[in-house]
């Protein structure tokens, strides 16, 4: 697959370019796409795991400056370069722990919503130079997905009729032609950094899934229990979009889609890695007396 090597020599060369000695290079938990290292105390080094993920890093080099210009809290790109055919990105370090490791502090989800509202002001018309950002290639058809799950024996006929009716009701709330805006594409706990001492959001990281898409997509990779607060923060910054049905549509469709690929992924940090997580998240949310209008959307 064209793996990029992260030898001591390569790491020492990159660190030296930024005035850091090799003994101050420390590995961080790697993501799906990148090896990640601390360079001293103030810089973060990311090297794609293979050529498959290089294009995502190229995209990030374009998207991050645009997001920062819009006022989004995300670390600055210090360098995007290569050494001995190994591409890499160096970013300023955002101080904090990711939300996958923390009990969410009060108010942090509202902060996430406000940052998303800033990001979603960017469109192909306002930032036409983002040539590496793809347009979302369309959402899965939930009715066809439900029929497939029935035919394959994953659900029974009564459940299929109930799901079909649920999607019918939700579809009445969907815009025929949703606007295309810049979305992060992976707003999830492990990509949200929080300063533990203040409880404030210190940065949004990992922009490799950025695309032009319906803004409601950016609310689909956080647990549903966090979404009311995130939407509240979004509305503080951008008005009052009635997006609950659109967000629920994505959560439900993706939860059912996970049934078609039920293999677990032990060790992965994303909350949706366990096959049942999304469905259990829906169950947990709707049995916890969610605020209006969520209960009316079932």
Automatic annotation (TrEMBL):
One Pfam family it belongs to: APH
InterPro entries cross-referenced by the UniProt entry: AGP_Transferase, Aminoglycoside_PTrfase, Kinase-like_dom_sf
Residue ranges crossing the lipid bilayer per the database entry: none
Superkingdom of the source species: Bacteria
Span of domain Aminoglycoside phosphotransferase: 25-245
UniProt KW keywords: Kinase, Transferase
Entry protein name: Ser/Thr protein kinase RdoA involved in Cpx stress response, MazF antagonist
Organism field: Nonomuraea solani
